[in-house]
Each structure stands twice: as C-alpha cells, then as structure tokens.
Amino acid sequence: MRSDDTIFAIASGYGRAAVSIVRLSGARSRFILETMAGSVPDSRRASVRLLRDPASGEPLDQALVLWMPGPHSFTGEDQAELHIHGGLATRAAVLRVLGSLNGCRAAEAGEFTRRAFLNGRMDLSRVEGLADLIDAETEGQRRQALLQLEGRLGNAAEGWREDILQVLALIEASLDFSDEGDVPEGLEADILRRLKVLGEELGRVLANRSGERLREGLTVVLAGAPNAGKSTLLNMLAKRDVAIVSPIAGTTRDVIEVHCDLNGLPVVIVDTAGLRESGDVIEQEGVARARARAEAADVVLWLLPPEGGAGEPPSARRLLRVGTKADLNLVRHDCDLVVSAATGEGLPELIGLLEKEAEAALGQGEALLTRERHRRALERAHASVIRAMEMLEFDEPAELIAEEVRLASRAVGAITGRVDVEDMLDRLFSSFCIGK
Ligand SMILES: Nc1nc2c(c(=O)[nH]1)N(C=O)[C@@H](CNc1ccc(C(=O)N[C@@H](CCC(=O)O)C(=O)O)cc1)CN2
Ligand SMILES: Nc1nc2c(ncn2[C@@H]2O[C@H](COP(=O)(O)OP(=O)(O)OP(=O)(O)O)[C@@H](O)[C@H]2O)c(=O)[nH]1
Ligand SMILES: [Mg+2]
C-alpha cells in the first residue's frame, strides 16, 4: 500500500441507486479527471461532463464532476469526485477504467480519512466522531458523533494540554531560581492552584459515563425462569419475530440481542436462556451466559410468570420485577408492573419505564468521552495531576514533579493522537467503509 498512489473508491453505497459518487485523492487526480472528462472544471464547481475511457475513447457515462485541489480538501490532497449514474454496470465500467490507469488504485477501508489524519486535516478524536457518525443509528448517537466530529472533545483535550504545558513551563522556570531544586513558595501556590483547577475539571469529565453508554447503547437483559415469557416479550419490544417461542421450557439457549431506538436513545435488548439447574450441557452453558449478561447489564427485567418458580434473581445493578402473562388473571406478588404479550396490557408502561431508565443513564448531556480509549487516557492524566499536587506539597524535587506533569500532557495528547497512537490507528481506520 503506497501512500503516494492516487486512490479511488465508491463513496456512496453499493446497491442500485440514482447516483453514485466516486472519490479520487492524490497527485494524479487532476490528470485523471482531465483525461476522463475532457477538461477540468473550475475548482469546487459542480459541472456536467461526458466521461470516457481514455484508452478507447468509449463513452462511459454522463456525470457531474468536481475538482477540489489540495490542501483545501477533505484529505488535504488534490481530490476529484465523479457523480455518476448509480447502475451496477455504470459503476463497474468507471471503476474498471480507473483501476487500469497508472499510479491509481482502489482505496483501502478508511484510507481517505487516514490521509486526512496524516495530513493534519483531522485529529484522532474527530476521526472517531466521523466513524461514529457513519455508524449512528439513533438521534442521540448522531448528535453526539457530530459534536465529536466538529471537535468538541478534541478542542477540550487541546485546551487541557495547553494548561498542563503552562504548569510545566512554570515548574521549569522555577528550576532556574532555586538552589535546592525545590519550587519557590510564590510559584508553588500558583502551580498548585492551576493543578487543582485542572484536576477538578478532569474529575468532572470522568464522572460522566453517558457518552460511552450512548455510543454503545443501554443494555437491558430479559432474565427469568424458563417459560417466563422472555422471548415473547423480546419479540414484542423488537416488533418482529426475532426469537423462537414455545411452551417447552428451555427453548432459548443462546443470547439474542436486538438494537432498539427509544426516543432517540439506543437500547440493546438481550434475551437469555431461562435460569434453572439443568443436566443438559448446552443449556448449562446458556444459563451461565445468561447470568453473566444479567450481571453486566445496565438494567435487568426479572420476568415472573404467574405459575411461579422464579428462583433467586441474578445480582444486577438495576432490577425491575415484571410479572408476565397478565391475561391469565392469576394473583401476583411483588411486581413493579405486569404485562401481557397476549393482550398488550402493560407494554406501554414497560416501554415508558425503559425510556426513563435510558434517559437517566444516557441523557445527562455534555458527555465528552465516548470511548474507553478516551477514559483510559484521561484517567492517566488525572492521576498524574493529582500525584504532581501531592509531590509539590511534600516538597519533592522540581525535576520529578516536572516529569509527572509531562506524563499528564502525554496522556491528554493521546486523545487527539499527538502521541502513543500508532498501535490503534490500523484498528480504527480498518473499521471504516471503503470510500471514507
Ligand atoms: N460529495 C461529497 N459529499 C460529502 C463529502 C464529500 O467528500 N463529498 N464529505 C466528506 O466527508 C462530507 C462533507 N465533509 C467535507 C469536509 C471537508 C471538505 C473540504 O473540502 N474541506 C476543505 C474546504 C472547505 C471549504 O471552504 O469549502 C477544507 O477544509 O479546507 C469537504 C467535505 C459529507 N458530504
Ligand atoms: N397467555 C400468555 N402466554 C404467554 C405470554 N407470554 C408468553 N406466553 C407463552 O409462554 C410460553 C413460553 O414463552 P417464551 O417466550 O418462549 O418463554 P421464555 O421465557 O423465552 O422461555 P425459555 O426460552 O424456555 O426460557 C409460550 O407458550 C408463550 O406462548 C402471555 O403474555 N400470555
Ligand atoms: Mg426464550
């Protein structure tokens, strides 16, 4: 894979469509556009051209083309776009011709965005925002991803880094003044004050976990005895026939996940095997997985059938007791609400309860961190800031304090990709679609 090749890819989808967009990026984009379209339109001005195969002169399609010279382009390189008709044969013909041209090859997944990153057009946090925007399935996810693409997290991280570097400069300045290598009194108070403000801010940001939850979805696990009606309820909530339902106890063995959109908040509903002792090794494994999922869930719906036999609920962060089969009109004890899949009774109330749970866990707004990677980096930075404050108070040598503050700035720098990121670049970019 050469980074000075000119790359091309379909940037729109692969089905039959009205229009398909082919993107080009790299030094030969202008030449390719000129030879296929006959001439290059004014920069960034959409223009209609008849595209031809330069080798045979054969017409390929009537297209709308764009010329976007670097460095003011998405990738920072010279770019062109061919907006062609979205038929399979048209796309195949244009891609075949592009692939036959010298110094021009099909792009790898994420390669356009990788080039934008390498050319300093986007920092890593924005690249992640872009990846999330393409994957966004709910309104909440879309909003959060767009804020990150626009640089909310990246700008915050840059700001913290500047604050940390300022503290570092003060500590280094103090080295020139003192003989013993300690930080002088007046400076120490200033440095301590700055570190305190920073430590409090990082602590506040770390306390909000709604960003990661919103990105991944709130997990709601359906658990209970066999035949409690878990799979039936999953099918009702998903509004389609996802899981097999039967009167035979022990029907569900695998974990089944469905992604739902509750008022823009993403919820992953998980159906599990009924919890009971079983001699069947496959069912045993299903029950073990069910318990593990329930313990890790944000919310467990503990389903209680009227016939009883529920056993002990799993240990869960949050557990709602839901009586099932309300249509059987049997006496119930100890339920937060009752539902019937047969009549629909209680379902709106259940969905309302789940919306409240999702709102409480995800709707805090203002979350900056959307990935475990950000949290780990910020936790390291926070720990170093706190340690530096302690070191100052114990009059440790300024060189050592400076080193700790440097660690904090490196940790914050990892968020935008200034440092320590080589290992995760490949993973991130390969998760993109071809053409992005
Ligand atoms: N046809 C098409 N639609 C698209 C894109 C694209 O590349 N092509 N995008 C691709 O992701 C998104 C829009 N994002 C973009 C971001 C930056 C630039 C760009 O050329 N930026 C230059 C010039 C800005 C200007 O002044 O217009 C720059 O930042 O210097 C283009 C698209 C979504 N829609
Ligand atoms: N009358 C009535 N029957 C229901 C209701 N919900 C489920 N059932 C019946 O109860 C039986 C068990 O339902 P499932 O949804 O398969 O139960 P499950 O909890 O997934 O069971 P396992 O997968 O075996 O753990 C089926 O015969 C369903 O038709 C309900 O609201 N009312
Ligand atoms: Mg089931």
From TrEMBL:
Binding residues for GTP: 227-232, 246-252, 271-274
Cofactor(s) demanded: K(+)
Entry-linked InterPro entries: G_TrmE (IPR031168), GTP-bd (IPR006073), GTP-bd_TrmE_N (IPR018948), GTPase_MnmE (IPR004520), MnmE_dom2 (IPR027368), MnmE_helical (IPR025867), P-loop_NTPase (IPR027417), Small_GTP-bd (IPR005225)
Signal peptide annotation: none
Positions of (6S)-5-formyl-5,6,7,8-tetrahydrofolate binding: 23, 81, 121, 436
Pfam families: MMR_HSR1, MnmE_helical, TrmE_N
Binding site for K(+): 227, 246, 248, 251
Quaternary context: Homodimer. Heterotetramer of two MnmE and two MnmG subunits.
Functional summary from the UniProt entry: Exhibits a very high intrinsic GTPase hydrolysis rate. Involved in the addition of a carboxymethylaminomethyl (cmnm) group at the wobble position (U34) of certain tRNAs, forming tRNA-cmnm(5)s(2)U34.
Family per record: Belongs to the TRAFAC class TrmE-Era-EngA-EngB-Septin-like GTPase superfamily. TrmE GTPase family.
Protein's UniProt name: tRNA modification GTPase MnmE
Organism: Microvirga terricola
